[in-house]
Design a protein that fits this description.
The structure holds 2 protein chains of 2 kinds.
Chain A lengths: L7 H5 L10 H17 L6 E3 L11 E3 L19 H24 L1 H15 L1
Antiparallel strand pairs in A: 1-2
Chain B lengths: L4 H26 L5 H25 L18 H27 L6 H10 L5 H25 L11 H23 L2 H9 L8 H32 L2 H11 L4 H26 L3 H26 L3
Helix pairs in contact in B: 1-2, 1-5, 1-6, 1-11, 2-3, 2-6, 3-4, 3-5, 5-6, 6-8, 6-11, 8-9, 8-10, 8-11, 9-10, 10-11
Classes of the chains: A mainly alpha, B mainly alpha.
């Protein structure tokens, strides 16, 4: 590729199904192809990868929804919600710190319980 | 299947160690320092649990010798990077705390290599107070991270947003308390006291019963988080998430889920704790069985979630 050649798979593809080039050129060609497909009886044809995850480096023209090809329909970054997930864990820890720990172990109550139990024994 | 039993046991161990410290530290601080011994037991449990867990994680890697690469960067957005650092610092601080406690009780007049180490460490003993706070922050992050690690993936069962970390935190604290209860109500407690020296007064039976009560409340929170998590997956999430949840509820993993997690891990401990609360019988007998059930249920929970996410 550094010598200005195509990747072997795209170059060798006998049916011309693979193409390689600058993103803008590929995008224009792909959109044209999608339109052709739509006009010729594939109304659901679309370009996968144009905007998914901010635009993929490898785009596919698919005649049916992506999930039919084992691709996620709406791909998302696995760590997209990581802050919320940390919060989910930490908030739970906070709740547990309050109930039962603060309720059962805070000093005031400790003394009161102690007195009651001693009173009960005596 | 990429993550196997090593990861399930690791998540259980890290939760147990961090949860025990979380519980012991809170009980001790809130009560004005009455339960120093639990904090020590928790560190004696938490450090080996962290180290053993880390070992399992390294074993689980394809390239064990490259595991140090995890420590070449600090990436807050990556739970795996954060977890590696949390585990490392947790273990170092735990070892430092044990060393300082050792120096505190070691006879000053004693010579030899141990005496030399103790005399070097003795001026640093007050630092243990600061370390105990740092360890509390780390323990809290550690137990949260065990859930975040799974939920920050795209596996249908795990990307349960907020409730998987919530469930793992509750389970970590309940297994942690259970581990403390096992230590205090068996001969392990006296053995540790013998080995490392005494730390304040031994908590009374009444205090142990209260810790059992705290565990009951945490188990209730865990049951709520578990119900919410599975309900969310089954009803409000995507179809593939609902399919994953059905693996646990009615599919291949359902015997383990219903018997191991729900019956042994949640219902038996809750039932026994309620009986103990009403009858106030000898706590040493009644604390052990629910604690062992809780520990077992926590392990099965990690296993069904780890395996279920990859089926």
């Amino acid at each position: 590729m550094t010598q200005g050649q195509w990747p072997a798979c795209a170059e060798a593809c006998p049916a011309g199904a693979l193409s390689f080039g600058p993103r803008t050129e590929i995008l224009a060609a792909a959109k044209e192809r999608v339109q052709t497909l739509r006009d010729s009886g594939n109304p659901r044809a679309f370009l996968y990868g144009e905007s998914e995850l901010g635009g993929l480096g490898y785009m596919c023209i698919l005649p049916e929804p992506a999930s039919l090809y084992g691709l996620p329909d709406v791909p998302r970054f696995a760590t997209k919600n990581v802050l919320g997930q940390w919060l989910g864990g930490l908030v739970t820890a906070g709740v547990i710190a309050a109930v039962p720990f603060w309720l059962l172990f805070r000093r005031k109550e400790e003394v009161a319980v102690k007195e009651v139990s001693q009173g009960g024994e005596g | 299947m990429l993550w196997k039993w090593e990861v399930a046991i690791y998540l259980w161990l890290a939760g147990l160690g961090g949860g025990a410290y979380f519980a012991a530290f809170l009980a001790n601080r809130l009560s004005g320092g009455r339960y120093k011994e639990w904090v020590r037991f928790a560190v004696y449990l938490g450090v080996p649990a962290g180290l053993l867990g880390s070992l399992l994680l390294v074993l689980d890697l394809g390239e064990q010798l490259r595991s140090w690469h995890l420590f070449t960067g600090f990436r807050p957005g990556s739970p795996m990077s954060m977890g590696s650092w949390i585990l490392l610092i947790w273990s170092v601080i735990g070892v430092a705390m044990i060393a300082l406690w050792f120096a505190e009780v070691f006879p000053a007049e004693e010579k030899g290599p141990l005496g030399a180490i103790a005399s070097v460490l003795r001026p640093l003993v007050p630092v243990v107070n600061v370390l105990s706070w740092v360890a509390f922050v780390l323990a809290t992050l550690l137990i949260a991270y065990t859930g975040v690690l799974l939920s920050a993936t795209n596996q249908a069962l795990w990307r349960g947003a907020l409730l998987l970390p919530a469930l793992f935190v509750a389970s970590a604290v309940s297994t942690g308390i259970a581990a403390l209860l096992v230590v205090t109500s068996t001969r392990i407690g006296p053995f540790l006291r013998e080995l490392f020296g005494e730390a304040g007064e031994t908590p009374a039976t009444e205090a142990v019963a209260r810790l059992g009560k705290a565990d009951t409340v945490v188990i209730v929170i865990e049951a709520v988080a578990l119900t919410g998590y599975l309900l969310w997956l089954s009803v409000f999430s995507t179809p593939d998430a609902a399919l994953s949840a059905s693996l646990l509820l009615s599919g291949t993993l359902s015997p383990f889920f219903w018997v191991g997690v729900v019956f042994i891990g949640l219902l038996i401990p809750l039932g026994l704790e309620f009986v103990a609360l009403r009858k106030a019988r000898a706590v040493h007998v009644t604390a052990l069985l629910p604690a062992l059930c809780t520990l077992f249920g926590g392990l099965v929970l990690r296993a069904v979630v780890v395996f279920g996410g990859q089926l």
